[in-house]
Amino acid sequence: FLSLSLQAKMSRPVQAQRLEGIDKNIWVEFVKLAATYSTVNLGQGFPDFPPPDFLKEAFVRALSGENHMLHQYTRAFGHPPLVKILAQFFGKLLGRDLDPMTDVMVTVGAYQALFCCFQAFVDEGDEVIIIEPFFDCYEPMVKMAGGTPVFVPLRPKAPKDGKLMSSADWQLDPAELASKFSERTKAIVLNSPNNPLGKVFSRGELELIADLCVKHDILCISDEVYEWLVYDGKEHIRIASLQGMWDRTVIIGSAGKTFSATGWKVGWTVGPNRLLQHLRTVHQNSVYHCATVAQEAVAQGFQRELEYYGKPDSYFVQLSKELQQKRDWLVQSLDAVGMKPIVPEGTYFLVADISEFKSDVPDVPDSDEPYDSRFAKWMVKNKGIAAIPLSAFYCGSHKNNYNHFIRFCFAKEEATLKEANDILQKWKREKTTP
Ligand code: PMP
């Protein structure tokens, strides 16, 4: 009996080769640390305030209303009311007629939209250009599709004397960017507004990318999940609206970020049918269908926003106003204690320089772990504030180039940000009083 059970034990390797080297995930590690130690969680990107009432009410209506069919499967590529309103809304923004059945597809969050893009477009040996720092899942997703990620960094320029650095000071070097395009390049991933820096790409920067895409006949996967979160009167420009780009761009969006409901996991893709038809192939052979009730509620949310478009009562207008205030609070708190903030133009993230705090968390020479990662772990354990090391947004071998920054999420209640401020002030006092 014993020998039989020994024989029954599997000994062959079970892991598919394409998973080689992508088993680690920063969120799994840091979400656990935050849950265990943090009093103030400014780590993972989600609001600690509720979504707007009109959205919650729409969900409740969908859930408990007359139409019991909302508890069943809906159309695989998107609940009809949602794709219709998305086509109308984005059609207006892009100034073109969109067919809800072919030019829009609903996904399980922006995450699945990204996954569909890489699976649909990337072949073995294809290269995909990724701008660093980047939302970390792009790299493993390209690799899982058999592709090779090619990285190009945003390079920081020193700010003017006495001024805080802005996310706009992080720029692409045009020659360096151009040098990454080759015959093997299939696509570039653009994320504007950018997580983690909060950079909002200017028209000039987008034109530079667009010209290269057209010249080399390359696709653009445009992750625009923070499209409504832009500050100081900045404008979010959609690269798909530039010359020659509609035909080669997939726009990715997220109801989680748009309506402060990240747990609903409703996302979408917008683009021409010739691209989206391949996303549908991936979707129908993997997820097939997204939660109907959540889609119905998001559809109603967009219906409401279409009515209020550009008006002061629009949630999109109000949210960015509120978040700009929260950004300013966190900028002030960090600046006051010498954790130099890079002022973001968009998103609800802010990256800060921890160089002045090195005496609290001494460097360990020759350590494999980037300094900011050890710092963030130390900070959550000893100070109760959770943040994410910037090195997590760089590829393996580049992690040590930008290892003295951490990323905070400021989509938090005033009380949460105040608590963070109190902890930082106390920390600063302890540092200065021997
Ligand atoms: N793209 C970016 C840049 C993000 O920051 C996130 C979420 N943090 C996503 C995509 C995934 O969005 P969702 O929650 O809708 O899947």
UniProtKB/TrEMBL annotation:
Molecular function (Gene Ontology), one example: kynurenine-oxoglutarate transaminase activity
Location in or out of the cell: Cytoplasm, Cytosol
Domain Aminotransferase class I/classII large: 40-420
Database matches in InterPro entries: Aminotransferase_I/II_large, Kynurenine-oxoglutarate_AT, PyrdxlP-dep_Trfase, PyrdxlP-dep_Trfase_major, PyrdxlP-dep_Trfase_small
GO cellular component annotations of the record: cytosol; mitochondrion
Record's keyword terms, sorted: Aminotransferase, Cytoplasm, Lyase, Pyridoxal phosphate, Transferase
EC number(s) stated in the UniProt entry for this protein: 2.6.1.64, 2.6.1.7, 4.4.1.13
Pathway involvement of the protein, from the record: Amino-acid degradation; L-kynurenine degradation; kynurenate from L-kynurenine: step 1/2
Reactions listed under catalytic activity: 3-phenylpyruvate + L-glutamine = 2-oxoglutaramate + L-phenylalanine; an S-substituted L-cysteine + H2O = a thiol + pyruvate + NH4(+); L-kynurenine + 2-oxoglutarate = kynurenate + L-glutamate + H2O
Cofactors (names): pyridoxal 5'-phosphate
GO BP of this protein: kynurenine metabolic process
Pfam families (alphabetical): Aminotran_1_2 (PF00155)
Family: Belongs to the class-I pyridoxal-phosphate-dependent aminotransferase family.
Assembly and interaction partners: Homodimer.
Protein's name according to its UniProt entry: Kynurenine--oxoglutarate transaminase 1
Organism in which the protein naturally occurs: Oceanodroma tethys
